[in-house]
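for the recovery benchmark. tokens below, seq after
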């Protein structure tokens, strides 16, 4: 077995909880294989480069292996290697989101509708 459907590989590698969620993400253009938007039935082989967008993060992966079936997380992590640039970018974004988090002041109650919209708009701008 030297190749596998993209949706099944993403499910086996535990990027998505179900194959249907993986298929939906692929159909929405959140997954690219070797720089090209793919279909769920695209064959993935060791050596392929994947770009998986799991908002707000983006993972750039090298496929290392294929799994016959979905297994434990430790086995799933052996199926791919994430590029160092991808790891650094995710950590930077995570730090930005953590630093920019709006802390709700419980003394004044929860955020009102305007404040919630401003927070959502701010978070969307960081992801771009």
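predicted aa per position
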């Amino acid at each position: 077995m030297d190749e596998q459907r993209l949706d099944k590989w993403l499910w086996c590698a535990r990027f998505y909880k179900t194959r249907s969620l993986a298929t939906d993400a692929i159909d929405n253009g959140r997954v690219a294989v070797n720089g090209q938007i793919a279909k769920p039935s695209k064959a993935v082989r060791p050596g392929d480069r994947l770009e998986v967008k799991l908002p707000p993060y983006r993972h750039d992966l090298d496929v290392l292996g294929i799994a016959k079936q979905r297994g434990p997380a430790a086995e799933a992590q052996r199926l791919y290697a994430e590029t160092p640039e991808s790891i650094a970018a995710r950590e930077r974004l995570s730090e930005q989101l953590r630093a920019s988090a709006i802390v709700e002041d419980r003394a004044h109650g929860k955020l009102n509708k305007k404040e919630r919209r401003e927070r959502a708009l701010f978070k969307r701008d960081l992801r771009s």
